[in-house]
Design brief:
It is a single chain. The chain has about 220 residues and is mainly α. It is about 80% helix and about 5% strand.
């Protein structure tokens, strides 16, 4: 490998970790600013005031969420034409999603962690990009579907939170559900979505339905 390429590769390897450390530092600084008016005693008192049933329910739902996250990555890897042992997928998934949900900036945090693990396990840059992009599409698809259902089923509740009439939310909900329907229909026909030089081949119908179910849960 030429010296310039080797140097560029070394620099690229450090971009992810450095970016994550920078985000951690910024997050801690912001957290300090938000919590400076509080005392440990106030926070602990508020925590113990939460009913045990709600705390247990929150813990159970959190565990369920983290149990589902590896399925995101498993589907994404299958879309990219690769597979990894379940323990490896679960390990990298837990760390990447834990960081992204705690610090935000999922493209930088979760994407960097996945790249570090998956590249070490033999995936190419193109395969990683495909899988990460597919995981993002899965999450977005679920958000669109659930939001559409909520707007159609509970337009009055959404209207009470804003100054917009319920019919606006019903219309938006129908549009969002139509987008999901178009995605599923395109998967039946195995079409591709194009945007300038970017192309996203739609998955098979079975994989698209699996995407929708997992993301909705």
């Amino acid at each position: 490998m030429p010296v310039n390429e080797e140097t560029s590769s070394e620099r690229a390897r450090w971009i992810g970790p450095v970016a994550i450390l920078a985000i951690v530092g910024i997050s801690l600084w912001l957290l300090h600013g938000e919590l400076r008016e509080f005392r440990y005693r106030d926070i602990s008192r508020a925590m113990f005031a939460i009913p045990a049933s709600r705390a247990i329910a929150a813990l159970a739902l959190t565990m369920l969420s983290y149990a589902i996250f590896p399925i995101y990555d498993t589907i994404a890897l299958r879309y990219a034409g690769r597979s990894l042992p379940v323990r490896k997928v679960a390990f990298s998934s837990f760390i990447s999603y834990g960081l992204s949900h705690t610090l935000g900036f999922p493209v930088v945090t979760a994407g960097s962690v996945r790249y570090r693990f998956w590249s070490a396990w033999g995936l190419s840059t193109a395969e990683i990009a495909q899988a990460v992009g597919f995981a993002g599409v899965t999450f977005t698809l679920g958000m669109i579907f659930v939001t559409g259902l909520a707007f159609v089923a509970e337009p009055v509740t959404a209207s009470d939170m804003t100054s917009l009439p319920p019919l606006v939310f019903v219309a938006v909900g129908i549009v969002l559900l139509a987008i999901v329907a178009l995605y599923i229909t395109g998967s039946v026909q195995r079409r591709s979505v194009r945007f300038h030089d970017w192309e996203f081949p739609l998955p098979s119908l079975g994989m698209a339905i699996t995407q929708l179910v997992v993301a909705t849960i």
